[in-house]
Amino acid sequence: MAIRVFHRDKPSLCLPLISKDARFVVWPGVGAWRANMNYVRLEPGEANVPHIHTLSEDTIFILEGEGTIYDYTNDIKLPFHSGCVVHVPIGVKHAVAADRGVGIVSVGGPSPADVPMLKAVGAIPKDAVAPQ
């Protein structure tokens, strides 16, 4: 496989579970099973559906805005703002919320790619297997 270049405005998957504007740019659908890069915009007041990555860590770099990361597993909520990086360990139920009066723009995502979640939402076939 050769090097490729992708653009955030031409994603091959958008996932409403994450936000009204969650663009999957690098993910298994383009052949990237171990890396993942999403571009996500949350409008003021919008939040992710609380979710768990059972096999992946989630790392989110905040480009613009401010909000709160909710850790439902440990009953913690932490504020963040542009320039911060949010790290979610494997198995922690969480959600990102634009609950501070402004929207959020972020990049990042679970690593390796969250194949069980992608299968559950029908983004990749149930029998898909990462290459060795």
In terms of topology, how is this protein built?
Blueprint: E1 13-14, E2 21-26, E3 37-42, E4 57-71, E5 76-81, E6 85-88, E7 94-97, E8 104-111, H1 115-120
Antiparallel strand pairs: 1-2, 2-3, 3-8, 4-5, 4-6, 4-7, 4-8
Summarize the structure.
The protein is mainly beta and 132 residues long. Helices cover 5% and strands 39% of the residues.
Structure overview:
- The chain has 132 residues and is mainly beta.
- It has a domain of 85 residues: Jelly Rolls (Sandwich).
- 5% of the residues lie in helices and 39% in strands.
- It is built from one helix and eight strands; from the N terminus they run ββββββββα.
- Strands 1, 2, 3, 4, 5, 6, 7 and 8 form an eight-stranded antiparallel beta sheet that branches.
- β4 and β5 form a beta hairpin.
- The longest helix is centred in the C-terminal third of the chain and has 6 residues.
- The two termini are 14 Å apart.
- It comes from Bradyrhizobium canariense.
- This is Cupin domain-containing protein.
- It holds the Pfam family Cupin_2.
What descriptors fit this protein?
5% helix; 132 residues; 1 helix; Jelly Rolls; RmlC_Cupin_sf; mainly beta
Taking all Cα atoms into account, the compactness measure Rg is: 14 Å
Model regions low in confidence, pLDDT < 50 over at least 5 residues? none
Largest sheet: 8 strands, antiparallel
Structural class: mainly beta
General shape: globular
Structure summary, number of beta strands:
8
CATH class of the domain at 36-120: Mainly Beta
Query: Kindly state the mean pLDDT as a whole number?
Result: 95
N/C terminus separation? 14 Å
State the order of secondary-structure elements, H for helix, E for strand: EEEEEEEEH
Output the number of helix runs: 1
- Fourth-tier CATH superfamily name of the domain at 36-120: Jelly Rolls
Instruction: Quote the beta fraction.
Output: 35-45%
Q: Give the name of the CATH architecture of the domain at 36-120.
A: Sandwich
